[in-house]
Task: structure prediction
Amino acid sequence: LVVSYPVTAIDEVHIYLLKAKIFLDHRMLDFDYTEISTNSYPVFWPLYLTLQFIFTAGDHDQIAKLSSALVFMSSLGLMKSLAIGLGFDRRTSWLVVGVFLIFFHYYAIFTALAENISVALMLAGTTCLIDWFKSKSKGSLYATVFILTGMCGVKYESLAVVGIFFLAAIFSENIKAGGLWQNIRSPLPLLMAALICPLWLFWLDLQGVHSYPAGTRGTFNPRDVFTTIGIIWGYFAHYRISLYILLLAIFFPLVIRNPRRWSPGERFLMFLTGGLLLYALINGLTWTMYFPDSDMRRYYPELLLRLAARAMPSAVLVWMSRTLLIGKLDK
Result:
């Protein structure tokens, strides 16, 4: 389905596929033929696509689509592994994967955009970090750092995800004898992953690559808050299924009381979900500083869907864990 889906997304064409083909044709990181507003974007995903083009001796768009589809399939495998790690058996873990597919079903799955690789890397980082909660192995922690570094090399929004990972890790474990500082110090290496973005910008500056953020405005107006809220509410009102899912996710855990204590992994997934959804909403306020209201109403609902979709894997996992694994002992 993904491979047969036409290449129609604007960013898919003029950012990721265009850069990958230019890198292939010129055998170097060449930014002379791309938009200045996108030159600063991290290039891990276009470079990966360039590698696929080299292996297949051609720059066919469907190769990029196939790579994106395979990455999404890896996300399904990671969801199943995370479900088993939370306590589901192998059969019911497939139920988690099925619910995830329902929540996560949106158009970016069928494109060569960077959304699939971002979600897959986030799930891989979540897997390693939850393993670190259980084993306290430095290997698991540094594997998380390595994976999050790759995620930051795909999209700038991943900087916020790294910060959310760090804060969620702090409050996922009980405050022990070492106090709050011990909880802060242990996951501190996670922040190293964010260094890839300033280093990338520094390298671009050394190479004399011209780049600037797209936009026409640079000031914040308090009324923009109401503009953003209106856009979000209008989106939920138009797509009522989204509102129903949101209400169900809030109401269901309130009805079913689970006496089992929250595991560190469940707490981490809860804080991760809340942080990612909050970031998706706040991101609109940043957009209001650069884009007129007409562009906000046209593009922000789609951006909101892309950003909120990153919270769906952790939301599904923690929601189903707290509503289905009732009274079971922590593993």
Observations:
- The two ends are 38 Å apart (CA to CA).
- The first helix runs from residue 10 to 26.
